[in-house]
Design goal:
- The complex is a heterodimer of chains A (363) and B (582).
- In chain A, 27% of the residues lie in helices and 35% in strands.
- Chain A contains 10 helices and 19 strands.
- Chain A has helices at 48-55, 73-83, 98-107, 118-127, 143-156, 173-190, 201-207, 225-230, 235-240, 335-341, and strands spanning 10-19, 22-32, 37-41, 63-68, 84-87, 161-165, 193-198, 210-215, 218-223, 244-255, 258-263, 266-271, 279-284, 290-292, 303-315, 318-324, 329-334, 348-353, 359-362.
- In chain A, the strands form 4 sheets. Chain A has a 6-stranded mixed sheet, with helices on both faces. A 5-stranded antiparallel sheet of chain A has the order 12-11-10-13-19. A 5-stranded antiparallel sheet of chain A has the order 14-18-15-16-17.
- In chain B, strands 1, 2, 3, 4, 5, 6, 7, 8, 9 and 10 form a 10-stranded mixed sheet that branches.
- Chain B starts with a helix and ends in a 5-residue tail after the last helix.
- Chain B is elongated and about 95 Å long.
- The chains are: A alpha+beta (363), B alpha/beta (582).
- The interface between A and B is medium-sized, with 28 and 20 residues.
Amino acid sequence: MTTDIVTPILAGSGLRVTHGGRTTLDVPEVQLYEGELLAVLGPNGAGKSTLLRVLAMLERPEAGTVSYRGMTGRKAEEQLRRSLAAVFQRPHLWTGTVRQNLELGLRLGDRRKSDHAPEALDAIASQMGIEPLLSAEVGTLSGGETQRVAIARALAIEPDVLFLDEPTANLDTGLRLSLLEDLERVARSRARATVLTTHNHSDAFRLADRVIVLNNGHLIQAGTPAELYENPSDAFVAETTGAEMALTGTVLERDGQLLLVDIGGAGLSVAGSADVGDRVKIAYRPEDVFLSTEPQGHGSARNRLQMTLAEIRPILGLLRLRLEGPAEMVAVVTRAAAEELELAAGSSLYVQIKATALHAFRL
Amino acid sequence: MDAARLTNLARRQVAIRPALVKRAGTARAARARLATLVLAALAFGVAGCGPWSASEPRGPELSGGGPGVTSIQVGTTTSAYDSGLLEALAPAFEAAHPEYKIRFFAVGTGQALEMGRRGDVDVVLVHAPAAEEAFVASGHGLRRRSIMQNDFALAGPPEDPADVRGSNDVIAALQLIVATGGRFVSRGDQSGTHARERALWIWAGVTPEAARYSEVGQGMGATLLIAGEQGAYTLTDRATLTVTGPAARLEELYADDPLLENVYSVIEVRAAANPAGACALSEWLGSAEGARLIETFRSENGVALFTPVADGGALAPCATLARGAVDAGSDSDSDSAPGAGSSRSERTESRNIFALAWDLLTSGDGYVWEIVLRSLAISGVALLLATIIGIPIGIVVALSRFRGHGTVTALINTGLALPPVVAGLAAYLLLSRTGPLGPLELLYRPAAIVLAQIVLAGPYIAAVTLAAVAAVPGDVRLQARGLGATRLQALLLHLREVRGSLIAAVAAGFGAVISEVGAVMIVGGNILGETRVMTTAIVLETRRGNFGVAIALGTILLAIAFAVNIALLAVGRRSLRRPLIS
């Protein structure tokens, strides 16, 4: 990466915000680079929206500075105000039609309406799929339509930095997925860089170039989706990024980064750094669990366990299996795989999982 | 001094209220005496008044009265009522006639006679000989009995700039006032006092210069206060002058003239619902007992106010009198009150009044339209200023957080509960000659009304603005900022979202100022051609008995309020199409 020599568009350092004595934000360092989509991931109340407002210079932190293209202070605020666009969690559309909202957005600040051709407005409307709504009164829109209009209104500005606060939080699954698709296409072409907050790791992983994970206002981990997925720095990140956390055991042996952990009488090889005798919690992703009906399956997985299929539940086009054995585990398989294995509740299965797909965290 | 004036003025504004309280007390006392006095009372009452039983159909029974007790409705001039005499006489009459309860309506001569025409009262007690004669001549009144007199007096500032103290008669005194350019304040309400004043000017053969002559269209007490403020002369009955003169800084300057004789008469109404009661009251007032009580009555400061007139013997007995409704055709034109229809049919009556109102509206009646235009000008200026002050205050309080914020909000909302009369009194005390703003000489001028209306409408507009602006979540401004809006643009967008409520605030403010009467009466004085606005004119015309004019003005007021609301709505819609951001 060449990020070391490129000036970030936005950079925050030593950011701290407290509310009534409670720290709501404590982020030592955060950068946003040209062309990048940065996701801020964390549960509700983690400080995501606060970080977003601080980075957008709409809220001053109690400590720390935010710089915009190398500028700080009033000058940076003034410059960023001219070139940002933000969409907040409960978007507010101004009374009037959708078209009036898009036009009004283009007229705010020092922008001149004449800078924007009406065709540009129609283009963003069609990109965001709201063209048929242009002459509708905003009061008649559904929640999903409102969110789309709010995002289109922001993108119409063609901002230097786009801020999206939980853009999919209030949408049901179908609307969420279609909005994600459009965002994936449009955001990068309309905005030089984007900061997006979400509590949904799959949204973050799908859209973002980099993800930072917040908990209780603290920055826990920053990295690419792959880094977070493969190497969560702690149990919180693992859980936040979708890992199963139900396995616990005791470390029996240690060999560098490889541990042998006793789980309900069975031994599992697990990646992680803990000492012999430590109690650990083991994170794994259900999609990393391989199943076979033969005791001697092929593959490089170190761990093999015999387990009983207790329950099958369909989830999002896949099947989620609950397995019972030395411990309880979860696996996800496609319908096709399930048919091939002739899965049924009560059938006996051999479970394989690589040691590097299991992450041990000290309890 | 100011406290005394305030008390006096307040008493006048709510004259009917203490009266009701006192009446309740009297009713209780009368009930207690009922049992012991019943025999004697029956002897008096029935002997005096012939064959009618007390079971005539009657309107609302007094709750204090026992079975068979009927009420006698008395329409009376304010001067007789305000002196306290009638309240002193009532218990004595009711003791003598336990089958009756008296209810007074202190409304002024014009309205009392009009109520008599309509059969809403059984007896009228007034002091306007010419109008009384016309009332009887047209068949609306039966027996007219003069019961007492005092005299009118010419009152003026103690300095007496026209030097009327040395006059030989009242005619010369009035001529002196005109000759020296003295100011004169007239009741202007077609009361008995006003009628006498007009007659005196005719006899004097002079006409005061319009700029030196104010018609206030108010009761005697308020008229005295206005004359006092303006250092003007006025014609008053001596009873009211005795009570209110000191507070008004007015002195009796001339009284000793037969032309100033002030005779009060009681007239039984032909259309009375309780003719027996009317007869009994008339007989009693003319009796030796009535005369004795009138003679011995003293004002609160111990002054004798009335002299009884012996005039009872020549009247026909009640039993021989015609009763019932008056034929529509028999009404004479002697009454000056427009709309004084004589029919007992409510429908015809109402139609006549509304027809007259319509005529006034469509004929471009100068008196009506002059008042309408003045009302619009005064209330328009007041509304504009109240809006300019109230909306920014509402916005600032809604959007800022500071120590004492809750208190300020509560204060603004308390302003909504400010009784207009209290606002008027406060403005009066500020603007009065002895008040802190006295030197500005704004009292009884349109500016004073504007000031009072700002005090009334300002809190309204500020409170509605505050509530509306505060109800919009702060997200709205954050969202605007998040799209690059400057702080001002963000605020304007916020206001754009509540413009409907802001318009409602202005509309509510307009309603508050255009319909207000109490404060406007106090600080404006209802002076003809200067401060008479729609509401005060409505009060005056109602008291004069000119119900048609009152209804016409009321209709115009409502039509204006409607038009203003429509216009404000249109402004709101246009502001939607043309956003605040250019």
